[in-house]
């Protein structure tokens, strides 16, 4: 049914025929300023589409792109940073750490490089993660925590099959090397005892002396030369309960870290070295 329209007596404007609680809607035209603004936005959009990339596969008459703008900005920033990066590339981590200006730049750049390349495994603050990702913020180091040792680990990685200089001596899986599960259970109890976390087990002590002390030390003090971690400090890569230790002994563990040399330039590796060293666990 068609709405009944009429002229409002007070204003002389036709109504739309809509009425709510005795209030009738007037059929006023849109304000001219609003219409002109609307038409201007349409015209502006048409011009924008012609000159700038606003449609798929169309670059626009000016050939401008956000990616192109970014490339120009990046080139400018790289040119500004080039002298400092050249100094970082030529210096040793020790020299960088000793020079306040270089150290400040290296810590800032290292923090960004760490977030991009390392935090996924070691955590945003270098706190490590379960499953074989060691903390970089404590004073427990598998291969050493000096600037040069950290740099070597970053450059070549661990057990990655990429670099001949990669860190890592494989630990045997003792279940396949001749020990039985009861013997491995005894050995696990002795390993836990090294950090005062388990009961005394003389049989396990004898097995440790025969099979483990050569790498981990008689008291579980570890050996950085071969990457054998300490076993007497309650810091565990794969868990410090008996089940986790038993699994490590029986089946071995073999964490992998990529070699960053070739992926990152020398300046970035030096910045990462200084940053990791400064996380809290670095050594002289």
TrEMBL record:
Taxonomic superkingdom: Bacteria
Cofactor: heme c
Broad class of the protein's primary localization: membrane
Keyword Cell membrane (UniProt): yes
Pfam family membership, one: Cytochrome_CBB3
Keyword set, alphabetical order: Cell inner membrane, Cell membrane, Electron transport, Heme, Hydrogen ion transport, Ion transport, Iron, Membrane, Metal-binding, Oxidoreductase, Repeat, Respiratory chain, Transmembrane, Transmembrane helix, Transport
Record-linked SUPFAM superfamilies: Cytochrome c
Subunit structure: Component of the cbb3-type cytochrome c oxidase.
Function as written in the Swiss-Prot or TrEMBL entry: C-type cytochrome. Part of the cbb3-type cytochrome c oxidase complex.
Protein name: Cbb3-type cytochrome c oxidase subunit
Organism (species): Belnapia arida
Native organism taxonomy: Bacteria, Pseudomonadati, Pseudomonadota, Alphaproteobacteria, Acetobacterales
Gene transcribed to yield this protein: ccoP
